[in-house]
Amino acid sequence: MWKERPELWSRDCSAFNVTAAMFLLVPCSMRLRFDCVLSRASFEADEIDYEDVELRVSGNISGAHSWLEVDDENYEPLTCVAVRKSTGFPLDPQPPVFWSKDGVYSGYCDNSILPATVHDPTKSDSILPGISEKSDSIVVSQGTVWCETWVPRSTARIASKQVLVTLKDWLVLIFNAHVEEPPGRTCTWTDLCPEGYRAVAKKHCVKISAPDTWDAGFGATYKTGLENSVLDKFSFMKRTRGRNLYEAVQKLLNESETAVIESNFLTDKISRWPLLIKGSLLCPTGWNTTIFKGKDETCFKLFQVKQNLTWPEASQFCEDLDAQLPTPYVGFLDWVYRQYLFLNKVPNVWMGVEWRNERLLYSGSEENLNWLADTDYSQPYGVLEQNGWKLQGRKEGKHHILCQKIISPRVAMQLQVHEPESVGSQTMCIDAEPQTLLADGDYIHPRCYVNGEFTHHERTEDSGCQYELKLSGQGYYQCQAWAHPPFSFVKSNVILHRDPATHTFVITLFQDKPYVPRRHDSSFMLTNRSNRDSDTCAEVFMADLRSTDLTDRFRFTDKNFFYMPSPTEMKLLHNFHLECEIKDTNTFLMPEKTLLKTLNEMLPMGKTFSDCRLWDLRSTQGCLRDVTQDFGSGTTKELTWPSTSGNAIVLPEQLCITAEGEPVTRECLGDFFVGYYWGPPSNNCTGDPSYITRELWKISTNPKHLSESSELTVLTANSTSLQPADIHFVAQTLDAFSRDEDISSFDLEDIVGIMNNVMAANETAFEPVQWKLNSSSTILEAFEKMTFKVQLPREKGDQAKNSSREFISVERLDLEVNSTIIGYKSRQLAGKERHGETLIKGVNELDLDDAEAAILLPSNLTFTVAGDIGQGRSVEIEEEKVQVTFAVYRNEKLFQENLTNYTVNSHIIQATYKGKIVKNLKDPIKIYFKPLKSGNDTVCVYWDFAKNGGRGGWSSDGCWRGPREKNHDICHCNHLTCFAQLINYDENSSFSGTDALVLDIITTVGCCLSIFGLLLVFTTFFLFKKWRRSLSNKILVNLSFSVFCSMVVFLAGIKQTWNVTLCRGVAVGLHYFILASFGWMLVEAVHQYLKFVKVVGTYIPRFLWKASVCAWGIPVLPILAVLVIDSSLYDYNVDKSNDVLICWMSVNAFKYAFLPPLVLTMTVNLIMFSLIIHGAVCGRARVNSTMSERTLFMNQLRMAVCVFFLLGFTWIFGLLAIKDLRPTFSYLFCIFNTLQGFFIFLFHVCRERSARRMWRDFLSVLTKDPVSSSPGNSFNPVHSGHHRGHPDSVSFDKCGGILVLPRGPPIRSHLRSSHRASLLSARTASTLIPSSRASFNP
């Protein structure tokens, strides 16, 4: 209920008076609390595939552009309905929707609205300056309207098409004009801000990222070199004309008290259109690029051609230049390209968008669209104009062609911050390598921050570093810079600087007062003493501390004050750093642990300071040694956790593992800013360590227990029994060996043996310890160090030692400065034996044909490395050598990373020089990979040990693909480390390689045999009138015809993708004939049931005619439904793993128009099959027979097989071909389903007695061979017998039919023919298989 009914043109905002329980209007600037109410969805979201849902706006809409005309008296309504794309049926129930007009969300949440009554005066006032709240509201009744809904349990939303609402009798003009800037004047372009940004305070473009961490928000919104970060608080808080930018951003966020802004980035002033185009060193001469950042450089150039080119001709023109048509739908390129056309006075060019098979093909974001209002969506090709996008026809031509190239950089800039050179040094060095990649302009120098606050640095050359940063206190130091090409944002490493004469602790005081983000969040507000909420607590705490005896030795200071909310109550927490600086530097500095213990005794938890109490006191160096109790083994066990330095995940000093064999760990959480504290133990000690685990643990805790390295090889020999804890203990042992300076030499065979044993362990043993304890990366780094401790002969010339096992091959080399060795390859010998060998200068392609993996270095690299490390000037032989290690890993178990779409598709090859990090090579290295799976979506990568927080991961920086050479994929990289190839491959999607070839052969041969067999079935049907009289045979021929047509269409048309219409026709034909075959299988099942189970009262008038209408007619219905809803669902089905196009339906069409009839038919047929088998085997009294049990069983088995193929149960194999069972059932499906037609001929013609007799008679006439054709006697003693003592006799034929004859008088020979006819029904009711149905024709 409203206190006063609001007017439509009111500028105030609605609010709810809790006391009066009424709605009222209040000024929008008023600060009020608000509540968010979450309601449970009225339907289960899991039951709906929201990718198949769209919103449709219906009403009195006309035209292809959804135009609604209304008059000023009778407003037209619009209705928003959620429907399924695949079926067109509305959802039941309908999800809640909300409406938007001109980009402003209204308060209307009903499914139907009157759009002309919905408007936002503030929005309209900004668009039409002449309109105010006193003006006629008719003008603002017009606008663009659409509806949206949220996807349940997701942040995604679904939006409808846009409807343009205009008033009748009003002339509506839609235009977008560009004004060229006259000399000496500044013009304003309509697109002042790029996509995703909003204008604020008339001078800035603002983008607010989604709630996330600072780094994530930073990466999401820092797109150009024009942004200013909120870290630059001076510019952000600077007041202009009485207000600052922060206040404008707060207004944008509606001043929500519960909003905590994680990140926000701002452009420079936009009173003038910024120039978005520049040159680039990466781009070819004459090509330009953009100022916007990106992983790759986007180069573009405008060409003027002699004659107008159509879209296909323009696309080919760009392809000939190794380029493509422009893609303005990616990132900010739309803004850039339209400015480029404007500057060059070109009206329009072709763009990389086209309609194909009734689908608009482009790879951009659905939210980054710029279609013009007059776009004709029936046209096929995209056009980029100065004011937006449109579509044009096939015959249109363009005189100007815009082409773009995507170029990956070969060298990336690295920014490094160095520790102070000495304890007393007051500066840090900053190096940018290579410095030439620093961006031009205002951002040519790095920008550095201390604990997030900007700090100044100076350019210097005297100190030996490029930039010098003065220390301004303890904390985190990091620098950032813009680099090019391509334009990218580079962040340095983070240095934690500590004053050695100062102990620092984090003090947290609790105040029983609510935490208000707008007041207490320090993202935008400086929490210095001038604007703190309350200084009393901190002041009382510091005064109390300064009154103790510790002031004689320490000088206490509080710094870095900030507020935080308490975890559960959202109360106010005061946080600050307590710095304890020793007064006399000549005296012994008390250990931090001792000082922290003293402070805890003097300042116990809960002690009050004014209206606050002490909440926590933490160290800023790490977690202190701690003891916990464990009850996992049933008894109390003390676990001692060692102290840490900073963040760390540690093991207790006692052996403790879980039942799964994982080590129990505990993490030290926090950082220097908030202090360090222990988390809970990861688990309990529920496992019983094995002998191997105990021995490995002893060695890892004290490596001196290991007498020689071969002992570790023996302990790890049983690889399959190694548990996650064992992998970690091996990693700790190898790491200790590699760091032990007393160990000067290792045996290469022992090292390789240990590595091979570890790599043979179960893959599940690696991931738990890699992501917690970094064990795999530790093994790799220790292995590299240990190989360089392998001693080689001190002789002239290149010296080498190698070792190869099943999973790893290693070559350790001491090379002369001018060595001819430039690479390494691994190849497979007989059986599983592998061998590695070096490559020398002059190596050719023939030498690499048998390589599984190979690496070729630049010919002068060894000489360059020797010069860099200063060994070329040495005199002694051993000092003139350059140490190199090559290695090949044949599985990726030590390279653990959670890859979502990609998997390792090659062996992993490594090349390393001792004492030199090789990077930024002018001449790249060349790597050969023999792919394990075929496919085109591959990526060249290397193992980056610094990725994923130091745990390692695959990275493609500095690596790129080269042209394929024979059976090898080629990669190039400009640095050295471990290299591999990744492939986007889904093992459940399709087959490749040998499996694909074998399945293709099986399919082709099976279909050909089936077609041959079905032709013989048709020949039998048309040749023999007596054979085609049977209803069973008529049904059989209809089934055979549908199967025959589906196989012919499949073989002839499945790959006819060159013509859209033909391909669509093939898909429709396949769909129809397969569904028709399902229908006839169902008819056959019903007929068999009536014939062999029900028997009596089974006559159905005109059964065949009714069955024909159903089996041939019903399959048309789902096909028509698909064609009406979306005929393009019958277009190419793409197998993404090997880029194969086939003429078949899409996934949605298969899911809704093919799978349900298949499942329904198989279900009914399975029920019928069970009834038939039960009736034949178990449903009748046992018959006495002279046949053995085995013979009876074989006849029943033959009957079951006949019915199995007749009813199409081979399709069940296709339904079961999923996940791990896919290979097995795919082979079964291909074998039996393609041979279905041949099996029909084999079981129902070839093995049928009457058909064979007719063929013998027919062939005897042709060959004039007087072969007797008298019908067989079913009472022939060879095929019949009498069970002694039983009144009945039993007879059977070769197809497995069993006939029960009642005992009676002897039958005379002249009556046998008629008697046979009279017994036909009894024989039919007793026969066990359908194949014998025509054996007793008169």
Automatic annotation (TrEMBL):
The UniProt entry, under SUPFAM superfamilies, shows: C-type lectin-like (SSF56436), Family A G protein-coupled receptor-like (SSF81321)
Domain of life assignment: Eukaryota
Chief location category: membrane
The GAIN-B domain extends over 804-989
Write the record's keywords in alphabetical order, separated by commas: Disulfide bond, Lipoprotein, Membrane, Receptor, Transmembrane, Transmembrane helix
Could you tell me one molecular function GO term of this UniProt entry? Answer: G protein-coupled receptor activity
Q: Which residues cross the membrane?
A: 997-1023, 1035-1054, 1066-1083, 1103-1125, 1154-1177, 1197-1218, 1224-1246
Q: Which Pfam families match?
A: 7tm_2, GPS
Q: Topology relative to the membrane, per the entry?
A: Multi-pass membrane protein
Which terms does the UniProt entry file under GO BP?
cell surface receptor signaling pathway
Give any Gene Ontology cellular component: membrane
Location within or outside the cell: Membrane
Q: Where is the G-protein coupled receptors family 2 profile domain?
A: 999-1248
UniProt protein name: Lipoprotein receptor
Gene source species: Penaeus vannamei (Whiteleg shrimp)
